[in-house]
Specification:
This protein is mainly β and 541 residues long. The chain starts with a helix and ends with a strand. The chain has 6 helices and 34 strands. It has helices at residues 5-24, 247-253, 266-272, 375-383, 463-470, 487-494; strands at 31-32, 35-36, 41-48, 51-56, 71-77, 86-96, 113-124, 127-133, 138-142, 147-149, 155-162, 169-170, 173-177, 188-189, 198-200, 208-214, 221-227, 229-231, 234-237, 240-244, 276-281, 286-291, 302-313, 316-339, 348-352, 357-362, 386-395, 409-414, 423-425, 444-449, 455-461, 479-484, 515-519, 531-539. 11% of the residues lie in helices and 41% in strands. The strands form 9 sheets. Strands 5, 6, 7, 10, 11, 14, 15, 20, 21, 22, 23 and 24 form a 12-stranded antiparallel beta sheet that branches.
Length: 541
């Protein structure tokens, strides 16, 4: 659903300005920023009472069918303090095949023998752009912002063949796009595909894999070394995990099927082989944000098959070594298994991304006459104020872990109806952002730090939203939801679309695993309590 707010909003502003010019033109002496300060107007500010409660989030949309999603979580989020939920993030993905796959061509005889030297799942760790060099090799540093948890503690990773067909269309209504939630149950075929339970722990030194490759007549073995580089013009190695997989399975189900109908096209392959499941388990470790849409294909997770063929040519025994990559691409879904609930507190609110928790906020809490319009709105409407700014501020509990705190929070509207949920964006998140000359961060929600460098607070500006309410343009007063911001929401604020292309409905994607504890609105929190402030000008007459 799409609405064009530009015409209505601009008309409202034009009428407001026109009214001010007609009635007060001779009285204005100074107009600065958004604050009117002159002999006919007084400026005031108020802190309004609000109500906040913490709620769990049990599922989110987690596929890439609705948006151009690139990032997926893999691993285990476990907080030793038990303030937050334990989340185990796994990945379901299709594989992309290479067109016209064949094992071998060009032999003088059909006597070709092929064996798999090695097959493994390759997952590159997220890295920074800076480069380090030791005595033998240059390498990138791990990107700590994309890795949450203790890298010294591994989580368990197992690979399975996917039994569920990943349908891009809704089976109940093929005219609609399909959608998968984070708690969708995917089936498995057979046992694990990796040789043994793999302990996954990202290490910057994981830049080389040594394999053994067969020689002539397959009776001798020659060692080989594989190093992954960022691209063909860059000889700086990338750190990556190598999960050894079962040779027999991929010989039977991949190499032996080359040239058959199953490998004749991507659609045929998807019907034949649904994909794989990367399943994370364990009680500790890290949760890692992986990029599945990197411009450098070497950085995309893939299944790597290295094999050797022996054949006869010109009456001589020959050897040909080959390898093929099957990228984890196409339809992908993050699944989250959750244990426990985010810890509640009388004076604090704990926010956790993915399937953690959010805060439900009521900014107008009283309606004594029960007419459906909060008393404070009626009071402010009667005053006919000129609203200068409205904002919500939330203070961070200094006693929590700093390494997991999100850089941004996000606010949206929710009717809080479980049977018919309606979620929409706050107008301030997009209405003024289509003008490139204005501050792209006007909506706020960005983490602010104190003088000592510690996390201090988040402030979100909702002036346009409150203005639309006070102007009488709406009597719909939904609750507000505060959450850990997802990268899609941050990107939207930084690079907004044209006004007429804005979708005002909110979709509950979230793959940001970070968490933060905030003080709520209780008076015992004193100057750290959550506050809703409005700044306005009022005619003295």
């Amino acid at each position: 659903m799409r609405y064009n707010f530009r015409k209505g909003f601009n008309l409202f502003i034009l009428l407001l300005v026109f009214y001010g010019i007609i009635s007060c033109e001779k009285d204005f002496t100074d107009i600065g920023s958004n604050i009117i300060d002159n002999t006919k107007f007084t400026t005031s500010q108020e802190e309004l009472g609000i109500d906040i409660k913490q709620v769990n989030v049990d599922e989110v949309i987690s596929d890439n069918l609705g948006i151009g999603r690139t990032d997926y979580l893999l691993g285990v989020f476990a907080d030793a303090s038990n303030n937050y939920r334990k989340i185990k993030a796994s990945i379901v993905s299709q594989l992309t095949i290479i067109p016209n796959l064949e094992i071998f061509s060009g032999a003088d005889t059909l006597e070709v023998t092929t064996v798999i030297d090695t097959v493994f799942l390759k997952i590159q760790y997220p890295v920074l752009s800076n480069v380090n060099t030791d005595s033998e090799i240059s390498y990138y540093d791990l990107d700590s912002t994309a890795i949450v948890g203790d890298v010294e503690k591994p989580f368990n990773l197992n690979v399975y063949q996917l039994g569920t067909y990943l349908n891009t269309l809704n089976p109940s209504n093929p005219a609609k796009r399909n959608s998968y939630s984070s708690n969708y149950e995917f089936s498995k075929i057979g046992s694990i595909l990796n040789i043994e339970n793999f302990e996954f722990r990202p290490k910057i030194s994981d830049t080389v894999i040594k394999i053994e490759r067969y020689e002539t007549k397959l009776d001798t073995i020659k060692p080989d070394t594989i190093i992954r580089y960022k691209n063909s013009s860059n000889n700086i190695s990338l750190p990556f995990a190598v999960i050894p997989l079962k040779k027999d399975f991929f010989k039977e189900n991949f190499l032996d099927k080359y040239g058959t109908t199953e490998f004749s096209s991507q659609d045929e392959f998807n019907n034949y082989f649904n994909g794989i499941i990367l399943e994370a388990t364990g009680d500790e470790g890290t949760i890692i944000n992986l990029n599945f849409n990197n411009s450098e294909t070497n950085a995309i997770p893939s299944i790597e098959i290295y094999y050797t063929s022996t054949y006869i040519k010109d009456n001589e025994d020959k050897v040909k070594r080959s390898n093929h990559s099957f990228l984890l691409s196409g339809t992908k879904v993050n699944t989250y298994k959750v244990e426990g609930n985010t810890a509640s507190s009388n004076d604090k609110i704990r926010l956790q991304g993915t399937v953690g928790s959010e805060a439900v906020i009521d900014i107008f809490v009283n309606d004594e006459n029960e007419n459906g319009i909060p008393d404070k709105i009626e009071e402010l409407r009667e005053k006919n104020i000129l609203l200068n700014e409205a904002s919500l501020t939330f203070y961070v509990d200094p006693g929590i872990r700093e390494d997991i705190i999100p850089e941004r929070l996000y606010l949206y509207k929710s009717n809080e109806d479980a049977s018919n949920p309606i979620r929409s964006k706050v107008i301030d998140s997009y209405i003024r952002l289509t003008n490139s000359n204005e501050n792209a961060n006007v909506f706020g929600g960005i983490l602010e730090k104190a003088d000592d460098g510690k996390a201090e607070k988040y402030t979100i500006v909702i002036t346009d939203y409150i203005l639309s309410i006070l102007s009488g343009g709406t009597n719909y007063f939904p609750k507000l939801r505060l959450k850990v911001a997802n990268s899609t929401e941050i990107q939207e604020v930084k690079n907004p679309p044209a006004q007429e292309d804005i979708d005002t409905l909110y979709s509950n994607y979230n793959w940001n695993p970070r968490a933060v504890t905030l003080y709520n609105n209780k008076d015992e929190n004193k100057d750290k309590k959550a506050v809703f402030k409005i700044f306005y000008s009022e005619n003295k007459n």
